[in-house]
Write a structure and sequence with these properties.
By secondary structure, this protein is of the alpha/beta class. The chain has eleven helices and twelve strands. α3 crosses α4.
Length: about 325
Amino acid sequence: MSLPTRHIGPLEVSAIGLGCMGLSHAYDVAPNAEDGTRLLNEALDMGTTFLDTAALYGGGNNEKLIGKAVMHRRKEFTLASKCVLDVYDGKRGLNGSPEAISNTLDAALKRLNTDYIDLYYLHRLDKNVPIEESVGALVKAKEAGKIGAIGLSEVSAATIRRAHGVHPIAAIQSEYSPCVRNPEIGVLDACTELGIGFVAFSPVARGFLCDAIHGDNYVDGDIRRNMPRFVEPQLSHNLKAARKFNALAKERECTPAQLAMAWVLAGGENIVPIPGTRSAKHLKEDLGALDVQMDTNLRGQISALFEGSAIKGPRYAAPMQAQIDTELFPGEELA
């Protein structure tokens, strides 16, 4: 099976990729290796050719899973992973120094059971290290034949331009959905101007835009427990906008998840959403977004549902937000 493709810098990938984080952590207990292996292979069978992971996910276990599950099909997909955010001395940490980047990359290659990663991101901006030094470390890795394209995640337009001055950046990855629009402040324009692809993670807003959240009774281990907009008292307010969105999806005879992803896809030909799922059924549903007709009027109607004070609460709690370089809207809550 084949899907429509888009370009992320020099890379041609399926128009919808797969974010693999949830196969190892973030939303309660991770599935076992057998189920994760099955999902990854089913994704490739459905025509998904873009798999996104990171050193941080599951403390390296996500990369290990991919290394064991699908490396026998290496020619069928583009592999993306990330550094800087990693586990240091047993704890999550942020280190953008060239030495840390080199160490994370070498460990990732071993876990992934490969000698080459197609797209390698700086997972976050380490504000204690000049971006030029961090990007320089990736340039050396590229010259050594360990990585192909270079990417950045959750950074501002100004940081993108500084990084691009060191070496052409192929991809910017940030959260983007009808209810998370920060990339529209400057990042999307910078990507268009510089010929950079944009990879949208959480295109269904961590389940918020696929009618999967109705209360804040999350299980232990679910990261949404610590995200202000996903808990009370903000959640009840935010669900009002979600219900209007769900009704619009019903009117358009598609699922909310499909409508959200079709909205993201319509933002530009250089945009590739990477929904995460543990279910082949949900992945098939996600890919159905490619068949949803999204005209300018519908996209504007969807956008309007989430403007102004429709969504209350910041994306992250204060410690996590401190690691985010992406622009904020005037008056946007930080904590």
